[in-house]
Design a protein that fits this description.
273 residues; 8 strands; 15% strand; 7 helices; eight-stranded mixed beta sheet
Length: 273
């Protein structure tokens, strides 16, 4: 099922995968007001939809927006409340990049009315689709919502040093049963790569909003350092080196690790029924 910018691939396994930041589409009227097309797309979760395309073979359901997060970030609290108080983050309709560069030309940032319009046009339908799939699968028993993300390994404005390869978030044990977090952690640990649970990324609005383990909806976020599947420049990025192309050879081991992670999610949900 596709509605131009919104794609839903329905599966039968008790697993819904959200892909909120893989889109790069920006309406021309908005792009014309932005500082540059490259900056407007710089912070996408590059190639994550391709990285996880094997998930349909596991029976997972995928919900993806093709709209850029610089237009509307569907993983932010629509009320405008910060997910990480006291820490640098971006808003519902970001006005700057992760590195602090202005996204808009002077005087061109969206006002409250435009933000509300963007929410109605893209944010609300995306979450209606997610909820519909959770309801469809949840009618048969517990279901896992897995929110899939990636980010550059080094973003000094957001975090110190190099980010671990696997960043698992359940908002401090609130959004899913501890058994699910342990199963995902074990699957990541088997890779031999670095990992952290509830580190810098504890789960965005999607994970926090839907995760209600007491009702059978278990939400967990995975933030990957993208060096695991593409060339990640060590220093500053520019239009000359970012985004680097998807690297199938580099990505294949990561896909194998993620297959174990998703399989663990499915086993957890099935065993809880």
């Amino acid at each position: 099922m596709t509605d131009d910018w919104l794609t839903v691939v329905e599966g039968s396994a008790p697993l819904v995968i959200g892909l909120p930041h893989t889109g790069t589409e920006i309406p021309e009227a908005i792009l014309a007001r932005m500082a540059s097309p490259w900056l407007a797309r710089k912070d996408a979760d590059w190639w994550v939809d391709r990285l996880y395309d094997f998930a349909v073979d596991l029976g997972a359901t995928l919900v993806r927006t093709a709209v850029s997060r610089s237009v509307i970030d569907v993983n932010r609290d629509p009320s405008g409340v910060s997910l990480y108080p006291g820490m640098t983050t971006t808003g519902l309709c970001p006005t700057e990049t992760f590195d602090g560069e202005p996204l808009y030309r002077p005087g061109q940032t969206p006002d409250e009315a435009e933000i509300a319009e963007r929410r109605a046009t893209w944010f609300d339908p995306y979450h209606a689709a997610l909820q519909a799939q959770i309801d469809r699968l949840g009618s048969r028993g517990p279901v896992v919502l897995y929110d899939a993300h990636s980010i550059r390994s080094v973003v000094p404005r957001l975090f110190d040093g190099e980010l671990p390869q696997f960043n698992i978030g359940d908002n401090g044990g609130v959004t899913c049963a501890p058994e699910l977090t342990r199963a995902v952690e074990a699957a990541c640990a088997a890779s031999g790569d670095s990992l952290v649970v509830n580190g810098r990324f504890k789960g965005g609005w999607t994970t926090r909003h839907y995760g209600r383990p007491e009702t059978g909806v278990h939400a967990i976020q995975m933030e990957l350092a993208d060096r695991g599947y593409m060339l990640d420049p060590a220093g500053a990025v520019s239009p000359d080196n970012w985004p680097s192309p998807y690297d199938p050879q580099r990505a294949e081991p990561m896909r194998a690790h993620l297959r174990r992670v998703l399989a663990a999610c499915i086993v957890f949900a099935q065993s809880s029924r």
